[in-house]
Amino acid sequence: MRIIGIDPGLRRTGWGIIEADGSRLGFVACGTIRPPVAGELAIRLLALHTRLLALIAQYRPHEAAVEETFVNAGRRSALSLGQARGVALMTPAAAGLPVGEYAANLVKKSVVGTGHADKTQVAMMVMTLLPRAAPDGADASDALAIAICHAHHRATAARMLEAT
Questions:
Q1: CA-CA distance, 18 to 150, in Å (whole number)?
Q2: Long-range contacts formed by 39-43: CB under 8 A, 24+ apart
Q3: Residue-level pLDDT at 107
Q4: What does the pLDDT look like over 146-155, one tens digit per residue?
Q5: Which of 32, 46, 143, 149 could form a disulfide with 5 if both were Cys (CB 3.0 to 4.6 A apart)?
Q6: Which residues pair with 32 in a beta bridge?
Q7: Which of 46, 67, 73, 88 is nearest to 147 (CA)?
Q8: Residues annotated as catalytic (active site), given as ranges
Q9: Which residues of the chain have pLDDT under 70?
Q10: Do 113 and 132 meet the contact criterion of CB atoms below 8 Å apart?
């Protein structure tokens, strides 16, 4: 099972792709999409959509996972971030992928063991779980963590279905 994790943002969107075989995880690829910072919002969102589509075509994930964004900023920033998150949700769905959504605290708890871990702790655990990974920053590391969270939770859901 190949999973793409997406950490949405208008300035930087992290992406990470893993292979999950039961509880075994493997690193495939990761990176950061940086839409143009200047220009119309529509063009920036289109750049995000186009790059995500290209990644889906290149790596052919079976499922996607997107972080629910927590915003502690102004209304205008929240609206822009929400639009980027909408693109991050819609693009894999339009490509036919099931999309899971996870709160940041659940991602941290799934990867580190505590929902209040900082970005450094998340990055260290991602590197422990995926030793071949070389994220180019916190956004890519967070995206891998989102994919790991999805792998854990989809496996748990499957085991619960088998038990009934």
A1: 10
A2: 41/80, 41/83
A3: 96
A4: 999 999 998 6
A5: 143
A6: 14
A7: 67
A8: 7, 67, 139
A9: 70-73, 155-164
A10: no
